[in-house]
Structure formats: structure tokens, C-alpha cells
Amino acid sequence: MTRVLSCIQPTGDVHLGNYLGALRNWVNGQHEKDVYHGIVDLHALTVTTESGVVGESTVSLAAMLFAIGLDPDVATIFVQSHVPEHSQLGWVMECTVSFGELSRMTQFKDKSAKRETDFVAAGLFTYPALQAADILLYDANEVPVGDDQRQHIEITRDIAIRFNSRFGETFVVPEAVTPAAGARVMDLQAPTSKMSKSADSDAGCVFLLDDPKAIEKKFKRAVTDSESEVRYSVTEKPGVSNLLDILAAAGGGTPAQLAEEYAQYGLLKADAASAVIAMLEPVQHRYRELMNDPGELQRLLNIGASKAQEQASATLNRAYEAIGLLPR
Ligand code: ATP
Ligand code: LTN
Prior knowledge:
two-stranded parallel sheet, three-stranded parallel sheet, mainly alpha, Tyrosyl-Transfer RNA Synthetase, 13 helices, Rossmann fold, binds L-tryptophanamide, 328 residues, binds adenosine-5'-triphosphate
């Protein structure tokens, strides 16, 4: 069966863009393929300077992943730091990638430039080596990621091919796959930019844990345009089209069909809000249950850690053996 792996960092709260663009596909994919999903807390250390923060975000994200419907008996859901093989293979990867290759990563250039005079951790630079370990440890055939991550999958392939040619066939060479189209959610206040938790204000970003009142307010204030016709055209009417996309994604139907049912923006906004509220209601309910039951959450994560580690330790051993490190 095809093995799929994708991971998410525990930084900030999950929003509608993360859910409709990525996480919902994880849930749908779990019955079709053998899926592994990691909460990559070690990656978050590249920007962590305060005690307690990453752990708290990890718990919350884990509860959210189970609340949206990932089933620990079907999918392997694990926390990266619970599987020490990630760090161990990460070092091997650092020695299999060159300084020059890492220097060409656009994410490093962007992120380090943004931090300007701030502390730029060396981990921000070597991050793709750890990401390569995340992927190669699980013999993943497919890695579903957005465009921003394609370069990291490309470098992972290069690392795998180089290692295999140096030390013998060891790693599966993975492929990046682009998740189903139509799932790019735009900021409600700036509908030509993607919905993002790092926007200047939260007004255009709907978080999965927002209460119904907050969601209604964000949709009511959504930026549209000065016309009054409801029509689906992403280029000419980005705000209205985003609302139609969200309504379709949350409530069903196609954006173009839905456009014909509305004569005014107000009703469209109200219905989009209601559809999102209805979609999130059971998710929020399950999230709260899990957050109130830390023992159960821990149990679910332990199932994932055991399954993940079984696979990861076998691959790490294979890699050590291929290199010919002295066994103990
Ligand atoms: P930031 O908000 O800081 O830009 P982010 O919200 O993009 O971060 P990531 O952790 O980079 O969050 O992404 C997690 C997943 O969510 C990725 O697979 C990414 O492609 C997806 N994603 C993020 N924002 C959107 C969006 N607006 N529409 C669709 N998918 C999105
Ligand atoms: N770098 C990714 C998160 C990530 C990942 C992975 C994605 C870490 N390891 C392995 C896919 C496969 C990000 O920042 N979104």
C-alpha cells in the first residue's frame, strides 16, 4: 500500500486554511493509504525561546488532529520528539547534504531575512536535513505538501539518492504530491492573500476554535467589492469568490452553482458563516472533550509513538548498517 507522510508544526492555532487546505485531506486519505502524520515539535525549536510553549501547542494540536477525525487505530499520529530516531537520522542527513544546497533554500533565505537582527538559529539553516529524516524514516512514497514545501521535498530526494549511491540502496525516494485543488482559503480581510495566522490582524483569519459569534463577525466584515452581483470569478471578484469557495467546502455544492442562489452579499456571508459554524461544532466539541481528558490524549499519542518508532528504528538501523557503523 502507498505510504504517505506529512507533518505540521505546533506553532499557533489551526485556522480554516490549514484545515480545508491540508488537514481535511489527511482525514480523507487515512482509509485509502497507509498514512503517517507527525506533530513536528523539534522543528518548532528553530523559533522557540520560552519554556512550556511548544509542549502546550503540541497538546492542543494533537487534540485538534483527533477532533477533526484522524483515527489513531487507522492513521499513525505521533509527536516527533517521542521518536528519537528523527534526531539521530537528522545528523546523518546533515552529513549527506551540502552547505551549498542548504544555502539555496528559499525558506531559509526568507525566514532569516525576516528575523533581521534577531537571533537566527543554526537549526533554521539545517532544518531541511531534519525534514528529510522525517520523511525517509518512514519509507514514504508520497508527501502531500503545499507549494512552499516543494523545495524541501526536492532536497530530500537528492539526499536519498546520494545516500543510496554512497552506501547502497537504503531509502525510498519520495515524491511531493499536491493536495486536491480548490482548497486555498484567502484572508477574509485581504482576499488576494492566503489566510494566515501570521497576518497583521486576526480579523480575516478564522480559527478552528473561534466561537460562533466570532465566526459570524469575521464573515459579516469580510471584504467584498463595490458591486452587488454574486458571481464566481477569483480574479475579478476575489472576496465574493472566497466566500463561495468556503461555503462550498463547508456545506457542499460547487462555487459557481452556489453563486446563482444568491442575490446579495449579506445572505452569502451569513450562510458561509453558518456552514462553517456547523462544520466546526462537532470538531470543537470533541476537542474540548480531549483537552479535558489528558490521560486519554496521552494514550492516543502513545499508540502513534509506538507505531512510528517501530518503523523509524528499523530504518535507522538499516542506514547505520549501510554506512557500516560499528554495532554495539
Ligand atoms: P502562516 O499562517 O504562519 O503562514 P500557515 O498557516 O501557512 O502558516 P503552515 O504550518 O505553514 O501554516 O501550514 C500548514 C498546512 O496548511 C500546510 O500544508 C499549508 O499548505 C496549509 N495552509 C496554510 N494556509 C493555507 C491556506 N490559506 N489555504 C490552504 N492551505 C493552507
Ligand atoms: N516544513 C514543514 C513541516 C514539516 C513537514 C515534514 C512536512 C516538517 N517535516 C515532513 C512534510 C513532511 C512546514 O513548515 N510546513
